[in-house]
Amino acid sequence: MTTATFTNENAELMALYAQIQQEGNLRTVEHARRWCQGVLRTLGYNLDGRTKRKLSKALPEEMAAALNNSFKIFPFRDMTISQQEFLKEVARRSGHTDANFARFPTTAVFRHIKKIIPNELNQQVARTLPPEVSKLWEQA
């Protein structure tokens, strides 16, 4: 990877974070980056392995690293997790405590991920997620 390529990818990623900042009601681009990582880590816990690998390949490297940086002591997906529980986890992983506020940056991150990935993968993610989280994904 050349420096010019890295700079271009970095600029695109920073532009993406700036959009997430604005749509997610966040104060800085760094906050947007942190929330994006929190959303992706939490999303990673709730996807099956195949979908997670496909999504990881479709995302920019930094975002893919956050998605793959999800470790659980008990590696079982909870298919009954509610939207509120999901948002609470996102908030906690993003260094925040308000699950109600977490809806804004989570929706912004989901919306921008859906713009990056192919429609087929978007549908696969929706099918793989727990029902309430899938609704949140589809509404984004």
Structural descriptors:
140 residues; mainly alpha; Globin-like; 8 helices; globular; disordered N terminus
Q: Helical residue percent?
A: over 70%
Overall pLDDT, averaged?
92
CATH class bucket: Mainly Alpha
The counted number of beta strands is 0
Helical stretch tally: 8
Head-to-tail CA distance between termini: 33 Å
Summarize the structure.
The chain has 140 residues and is an all-alpha fold.
Tell me what the structure shows.
It contains eight helices and no strands. It is mainly alpha-helical and 140 residues long. The chain has one domain (3-64, 76-139): Globin-like, CATH 1.10.490.110. Helix 2 packs across helix 5 (83-93).
Provide the fold topology.
Layout: H1 3-23, H2 29-45, H3 49-58, H4 61-68, H5 83-93, H6 99-116, H7 119-128, H8 131-139
Helix pairs in contact: 1-2, 1-6, 2-4, 2-5, 2-6, 3-4, 3-7, 5-6, 7-8
